[in-house]
Request: fold
Amino acid sequence: MTLTPSPTTAAPPTARLRTLVDGIRAAVDRGLPPEATAWLVADVLRPHLAARDLVTPAQCEGDPDHYRQHVLHAEPDGMFSLVALVWLPGQETSIHDHVSWCVTGVHRGEEHERRYRLVPGGSGGAGARLEAAGDLVSPAGTVTAFAPPGDIHKVRNGGAGTAVSLHVYGADITRLGSSVRRVYRLPADR
Reply:
Protein backbone atom coordinates (compact mmCIF):
# COMPACT_ATOMS: atom_id res chain seq x y z
CA MET A 1 0.00 0.00 0.00
CA THR A 2 1.35 3.45 -0.92
CA LEU A 3 0.96 6.05 1.75
CA THR A 4 1.50 9.77 2.09
CA PRO A 5 2.95 11.29 5.23
CA SER A 6 0.84 12.84 7.92
CA PRO A 7 2.68 16.06 8.83
CA THR A 8 3.18 17.58 12.24
CA THR A 9 4.74 20.85 13.25
CA ALA A 10 8.01 21.44 15.03
CA ALA A 11 8.28 20.84 18.77
CA PRO A 12 10.90 22.59 20.89
CA PRO A 13 14.29 21.15 19.90
CA THR A 14 16.52 19.21 22.24
CA ALA A 15 20.00 20.63 22.97
CA ARG A 16 21.51 17.94 20.74
CA LEU A 17 19.12 18.81 17.92
CA ARG A 18 20.15 22.49 18.19
CA THR A 19 23.79 21.41 17.90
CA LEU A 20 22.95 19.29 14.86
CA VAL A 21 21.11 22.20 13.20
CA ASP A 22 24.10 24.49 13.82
CA GLY A 23 26.38 21.92 12.15
CA ILE A 24 24.05 21.52 9.17
CA ARG A 25 23.87 25.31 8.80
CA ALA A 26 27.68 25.55 8.74
CA ALA A 27 27.90 22.84 6.06
CA VAL A 28 25.19 24.44 3.88
CA ASP A 29 26.69 27.91 4.29
CA ARG A 30 29.88 26.73 2.56
CA GLY A 31 27.97 27.18 -0.70
CA LEU A 32 29.22 24.02 -2.39
CA PRO A 33 27.40 22.21 -5.23
CA PRO A 34 24.37 20.11 -4.18
CA GLU A 35 26.04 16.68 -4.09
CA ALA A 36 29.04 17.96 -2.12
CA THR A 37 26.71 19.76 0.29
CA ALA A 38 24.72 16.55 0.81
CA TRP A 39 27.87 14.59 1.72
CA LEU A 40 29.03 17.33 4.12
CA VAL A 41 25.63 17.28 5.81
CA ALA A 42 25.80 13.46 5.99
CA ASP A 43 29.09 13.76 7.88
CA VAL A 44 27.45 16.21 10.32
CA LEU A 45 24.38 13.98 10.87
CA ARG A 46 26.18 10.64 11.33
CA PRO A 47 27.53 11.09 14.91
CA HIS A 48 24.14 12.25 16.23
CA LEU A 49 22.03 9.31 15.04
CA ALA A 50 22.51 6.95 17.98
CA ALA A 51 21.92 9.64 20.61
CA ARG A 52 18.84 9.09 22.74
CA ASP A 53 18.49 12.84 23.30
CA LEU A 54 18.33 13.72 19.59
CA VAL A 55 14.54 13.73 19.30
CA THR A 56 11.76 13.67 21.86
CA PRO A 57 9.41 10.70 22.36
CA ALA A 58 6.60 12.73 20.75
CA GLN A 59 8.77 13.18 17.64
CA CYS A 60 9.04 9.38 17.39
CA GLU A 61 5.29 8.77 17.37
CA GLY A 62 3.87 7.11 14.29
CA ASP A 63 0.47 7.21 12.63
CA PRO A 64 -1.42 3.97 11.90
CA ASP A 65 -2.57 5.25 8.51
CA HIS A 66 0.56 6.93 7.06
CA TYR A 67 4.22 7.31 7.72
CA ARG A 68 4.49 10.44 9.77
CA GLN A 69 6.58 13.53 9.16
CA HIS A 70 7.65 15.60 12.18
CA VAL A 71 9.22 18.89 11.10
CA LEU A 72 12.15 19.43 13.44
CA HIS A 73 13.60 22.57 11.86
CA ALA A 74 13.16 24.77 8.80
CA GLU A 75 15.87 27.34 8.23
CA PRO A 76 14.34 30.84 8.05
CA ASP A 77 16.04 31.56 4.69
CA GLY A 78 14.70 28.27 3.23
CA MET A 79 18.16 26.75 2.69
CA PHE A 80 17.34 23.47 4.46
CA SER A 81 14.78 21.59 6.52
CA LEU A 82 15.18 18.74 8.98
CA VAL A 83 12.38 16.24 9.54
CA ALA A 84 11.91 13.00 11.43
CA LEU A 85 9.98 10.38 9.49
CA VAL A 86 8.33 7.68 11.56
CA TRP A 87 7.44 4.46 9.77
CA LEU A 88 5.30 1.71 11.25
CA PRO A 89 5.89 -1.77 9.79
CA GLY A 90 4.84 -1.98 6.14
CA GLN A 91 4.46 1.76 5.55
CA GLU A 92 6.08 3.06 2.38
CA THR A 93 6.37 5.93 -0.06
CA SER A 94 5.36 6.05 -3.68
CA ILE A 95 8.16 5.90 -6.24
CA HIS A 96 9.40 9.48 -6.33
CA ASP A 97 12.29 11.89 -6.75
CA HIS A 98 13.14 15.13 -4.95
CA VAL A 99 13.23 18.89 -5.41
CA SER A 100 16.69 19.15 -3.85
CA TRP A 101 19.62 17.32 -2.34
CA CYS A 102 18.72 15.02 0.53
CA VAL A 103 20.46 13.28 3.41
CA THR A 104 18.85 10.42 5.30
CA GLY A 105 20.05 8.95 8.58
CA VAL A 106 18.35 6.04 10.30
CA HIS A 107 17.89 6.77 14.01
CA ARG A 108 15.97 3.63 14.99
CA GLY A 109 14.92 0.45 13.17
CA GLU A 110 15.76 0.07 9.50
CA GLU A 111 14.66 1.43 6.16
CA HIS A 112 14.43 -0.53 2.93
CA GLU A 113 15.03 1.43 -0.25
CA ARG A 114 14.68 0.48 -3.88
CA ARG A 115 16.42 2.80 -6.32
CA TYR A 116 15.27 3.14 -9.91
CA ARG A 117 16.66 4.22 -13.23
CA LEU A 118 14.34 5.84 -15.79
CA VAL A 119 14.52 3.93 -19.07
CA PRO A 120 13.22 6.02 -21.96
CA GLY A 121 10.73 4.53 -24.34
CA GLY A 122 10.52 4.95 -28.06
CA SER A 123 9.99 8.21 -29.91
CA GLY A 124 8.16 10.77 -27.82
CA GLY A 125 8.89 8.87 -24.59
CA ALA A 126 6.10 6.33 -25.16
CA GLY A 127 6.81 3.14 -23.29
CA ALA A 128 9.16 4.65 -20.71
CA ARG A 129 9.56 2.53 -17.60
CA LEU A 130 11.48 2.32 -14.33
CA GLU A 131 14.17 -0.29 -13.96
CA ALA A 132 15.32 -1.36 -10.50
CA ALA A 133 18.87 -0.08 -10.01
CA GLY A 134 19.52 -1.51 -6.57
CA ASP A 135 18.14 -2.34 -3.17
CA LEU A 136 19.50 -1.02 0.09
CA VAL A 137 18.69 -2.02 3.66
CA SER A 138 19.79 0.71 6.06
CA PRO A 139 19.94 -0.20 9.75
CA ALA A 140 20.21 2.35 12.56
CA GLY A 141 23.28 4.55 12.11
CA THR A 142 23.29 4.36 8.31
CA VAL A 143 23.52 7.65 6.43
CA THR A 144 22.88 8.14 2.70
CA ALA A 145 23.10 11.28 0.59
CA PHE A 146 22.07 12.16 -2.95
CA ALA A 147 21.20 15.02 -5.24
CA PRO A 148 19.03 15.15 -8.33
CA PRO A 149 19.03 13.95 -11.01
CA GLY A 150 19.13 10.21 -10.53
CA ASP A 151 17.38 10.13 -7.18
CA ILE A 152 14.31 8.08 -8.07
CA HIS A 153 13.44 5.68 -5.27
CA LYS A 154 10.86 4.11 -2.99
CA VAL A 155 11.36 3.76 0.77
CA ARG A 156 9.57 1.46 3.19
CA ASN A 157 9.78 -0.01 6.64
CA GLY A 158 10.37 -3.69 5.92
CA GLY A 159 11.17 -4.48 9.54
CA ALA A 160 9.00 -5.72 12.39
CA GLY A 161 9.26 -2.57 14.56
CA THR A 162 8.93 1.16 14.21
CA ALA A 163 11.61 2.91 12.16
CA VAL A 164 12.62 6.54 12.72
CA SER A 165 14.83 8.37 10.26
CA LEU A 166 16.05 11.94 10.02
CA HIS A 167 15.93 13.60 6.61
CA VAL A 168 17.66 16.83 5.72
CA TYR A 169 16.47 18.50 2.54
CA GLY A 170 17.98 21.47 0.73
CA ALA A 171 14.55 23.14 0.62
CA ASP A 172 11.93 24.62 2.93
CA ILE A 173 9.58 21.71 3.60
CA THR A 174 7.23 23.90 5.64
CA ARG A 175 6.61 26.05 2.57
CA LEU A 176 6.57 23.25 -0.02
CA GLY A 177 4.76 20.66 2.13
CA SER A 178 7.01 17.87 0.83
CA SER A 179 10.43 17.20 -0.64
CA VAL A 180 8.88 15.23 -3.50
CA ARG A 181 9.31 16.70 -6.98
CA ARG A 182 7.49 13.97 -8.90
CA VAL A 183 5.64 10.75 -8.16
CA TYR A 184 6.25 8.15 -10.88
CA ARG A 185 3.36 6.04 -12.14
CA LEU A 186 5.29 4.35 -14.92
CA PRO A 187 5.63 0.58 -15.11
CA ALA A 188 8.34 -0.36 -12.62
CA ASP A 189 10.30 -3.40 -11.54
CA ARG A 190 8.95 -4.56 -8.21
Notes: The chain has a mean pLDDT of 89. Helices lie at 15-28, 34-45, 173-176.
